[in-house]
Amino acid sequence: MSTKVFVSGATGFIARQTIKLLLSRGYKVVGSVRSSEKGEILKKSYGASFSYEIVEVLERDGAFDEALKKHPDVTIFLHTASPVTPFSTELEKNVLIPAISGTKYVLKSIYEYAPQITRVVVTSSWAAIIPVPDRFNPKFVGSEDIWNPITYEEAKQDSIHAYFGSKTFAEKAAWEFVEKNKPNFDLSTVNPVFVLGPQSKDEEVKDTLNVTAELVNSILKLNPKDEVPTLEGNFVDVRDVALAHVLAFEKEEAKGQRLVLVTERYSGQLVLDIIRKNFPELGDKLPVGVPGSKDGSNFAAPNDKKTRSILGFDRINLEKSVVDAVEQIQRVKA
Ligand code: NAP
User: What is the DSSP secondary structure assignment for residue 317, as one 8-state letter?
Assistant: First the structure.
């Protein structure tokens, strides 16, 4: 019988690629979504091995109880749901509480109602590692052993701090839960940097994409005289993030580990350079910027040696990630 995996936040960019990969490896998947409309779209897309449960609000004690009771054969839980909103207001209510309480409550539900679950993977972030001001410090080296020292008060000051705080406190809450309750499951976290790459299916390409995937899409929408987006930093492809979620529970060595996922540097200019090189027909429609001028190297550097030795797979590079995303967008818009 196939192993059944629960994926919270099944509509997300990373979750969908993870679900696609899980199904291709023969797992059954139950996803949590916020409405039946969203669930039906996924069901149609992923077929008979996928089912969904509605969990409208993450930040409610017992939110996952019923969903877990209905699936006593789930043995793996991937908690990916969390707010990823750059311009949020009411930061505590909309970002911090859903992320932090959501993580605590989901683990409590698993502990109380799903003792058969043996592995839990929480999608954390590089944001739980790097102090907010050190994002722009090339001498700062982040790794699996480092924690963002942000305080809860600092996290409330703006949406960047709120996101970094939400990921830091949610991940800490997960490790503390395990330490305190000694549940039947082993915990691993996946801590990706900025995630790019294609959607799991062409039909998921919309005018505006998820916050990070939108970088490539937004560059394709530029006119020749527009400014090139100034975003830069470290990147990983979404398909590698999906694979890391799966290996995080398949591999013994990943038990109890934080897994940092990073491939190479990126910037808006580098993405544009890749598009201009690989899609010469778009040349006249896009700005040129200053080719090669920004390589992301003024950003903090990750050291992911430990994760690479645990997970052991080759990463998809920025060029392939961008080309695959652009080809998909072009295909859908043709
Ligand atoms: P995404 O596409 O925005 O997916 C977020 C998912 O979480 C969606 O399923 C969303 O549901 C759900 N969600 C958000 N707020 C919620 C709430 N209050 N209650 C219930 N569900 C909620 O983002 P993503 O990039 O795939 O991110 C997935 C995970 O990866 C997050 O934990 C994020 O912090 C982490 N991560 C992302 C990146 C990145 O660069 N993208 C990097 C590091 C870590 P709806 O679809 O219904 O809104």
Answer: P
